Structures are given as C-alpha cells and as structure tokens.
Amino acid sequence: MELASKPRNRGIMQRKFDDSTRNGGAVHVPQELRVPPAIPSWYFFYGTLADPKRLAQVAELDKEPTMAKAKVMRSCLKRFGHYPVLCIGSQIVHGVVWFAPTSEIVERLREYESDAYREYPKFVKMENGDEILAMTFIWNGEEEDLEDGDKD
Question: What pLDDT shows up at residue 98?
C-alpha cells in the first residue's frame, strides 16, 4: 500500500538548516546579532580599568568612580606583553567591581578593550560578602600568545 505524499509545510528552522548545509554549514549571522546590546551592568575589572583615574578617562566620567574590591573564582591571570589578561582557570583573581550606568559607557568600555577581549559574565564575590553577576573582559585571542603569571 502506497501512502499519498502530502505537501509539507517546512518550518523556518528547517529551511535555515537546509540552507546552511547547502553552503558548507556556514550560516550568515549579522554583526548586530553576534554582540549583545550594550546595557547598564556591573563590571569586574582586574587590569588597567581597575585604576579609577583610567576608568574615568575611558568612560568619559566627570569624576573618578567609586569601585568596590571583589574577586572572581575559577579564573587565572596571564599576560599579553605587560597587560594582564583574564582567562578561565582554577585560581582566584582579585579586582574591583563598578556599575556602568549607561549603554554609552558600556560601548566606550567595549571600544577600549577592542576585539582582543570579549565580554564574559562571571559571578563576582564582593568584599562585603555579596555575590553578583558581572561582566568582565576575557582574552579573545590565541592562548599561545599569552605568557603565564601575574608580573607586578
């Protein structure tokens, strides 16, 4: 017994899958969908932006920001030249947290960090014991370009 073939209403996800397999698996994703929108958020800083003067300059603030001491777990610090680089690891890294109050300031932070770093959410333990979810910038390059250790 032969079943009659019914026309199928193909869903959008199936069509995208079919299109991607025809193009060797590559799916074009517009840049604006790859980078999350800049929204006011807590940020954890461990390097040059942990300096209030430098952060005020980069964020174009009228005065130096008030930051709180904090630390992140399951991380490590390496070096790219003389710049500290946060990586995923098994150590505790000390730094500071600060709330970036506007999307324009978040964009300035992203521009300063460049494509060499990418934003990454981390649970941060503040000095007062509170734990918050904050964004931080971690290395976005090749691991072999980094040197081990925190040279202060």
Answer: 98
Number of residues that make up the chain: 152
Taking 90 as the threshold, does the pLDDT of residue 111 lie above it? yes
Contacts of 118 (CB under 8 A, 6+ apart): 137, 138, 140
Using alpha carbons, select from 70, 68, 48 the residue that is nearest to residue 59.
48
Q: Tokens at residue 1, please?
A: 């017994």
**Residue 69, SS3 per DSSP:** strand
* Nearest partner of 96 among 64, 60, 71, 122, judged by Cα: 71
85's enclosing H/E stretch is: strand 83-88
- CA dist list (Å): 15 to 1, 5, 41, 52, 128: 30, 19, 36, 51, 52
Q: Are 92 and 73 in contact (CB under 8 A)?
A: yes
Q: Note the pTM of the prediction, 2 decimals.
A: 0.74
pLDDT of residue 23: 47
Give the C-alpha separation, 139 to 87, whole Å: 6
CA 68/CA 127 separation, integer angstroms = 7
Contact 135, 98 (CB under 8 A): no
